[in-house]
Amino acid sequence: FRVIAKNAAGLFSEPSDSTGPITVKDDVDAPRIMMDVKFRDVVVVKAGEILKINADVAGRPLPVISWTKDGKEIEEKARTEIQSTDNTTLLIVKDCIRRDSGQYVLTLQNVAGTRSLAVNCKVLDRPGPSAGPLQVDGVTCEKCTLSWGPPQENGGAEIDYYIIEKRETSRLAWTVCEGELRTTSCKVTKLLKGNEYIFRVMGVNKYGVGEPLESEPVKAQNPFTVPNAPKSIEI
């Protein structure tokens, strides 16, 4: 830029020195997230409660707001709601269940950059099913041995013990074999020869009895049989 003066007589002065090249830029600010310090720790909620994660946001131009959980974009559904204004955002998860545990990430983006902040959440609930398959070995006409793995989802608490049950495939009622087993294998006895059984195992933590893991049907019989009488004997 330069300046030229003009007087009442209509005469112009010599131009001033030039300012030199000036680059025009937009007035921009990188996105910023302001979140309560309590979200730095793992957020713990009980099953059935409401999870709320809120933050103040800023940036120029106004940043685009997005939420993800475990790397996947969160969609608003019956239990999930996102409320956002120019300066705030709020994620609400109603009636929390075990699979709502995980990492929630708030991301802001505009032409000046991207900013993300993660919040880890744990939902306290009954355990998920034990890791399968429920293996049935050493089957005889009277007994067998069961083995399985601990639940991948423990509901946010240690597994206290396992409940083992059996039922005949011809019946609907389950019978308890072990009520407080503290290992991931057990021997089941008192089977009836020739009957077909299904077994199931359930982990238990301080929040309740978990989902069952069932076995395939197994018939109580010896792995060997008595041979038939010889036929067509030749001397």
Automatic annotation (TrEMBL):
CDD domains listed in its UniProt record: FN3, Ig_Titin_like
SMART domains reported in the protein's UniProt record: FN3
Keyword Isomerase on entry: no
Key words of the record: Immunoglobulin domain
GO molecular function: structural constituent of muscle
Domain Ig-like: 31-118
One example of a Gene Ontology biological process annotation: cardiac muscle tissue development
GO annotation, cellular component aspect: M band
Keyword Nucleotidyltransferase in annotation: no
Domain Fibronectin type-III: 1-27, 130-223
Protein's name according to its UniProt entry: Titin
Gene: TTN
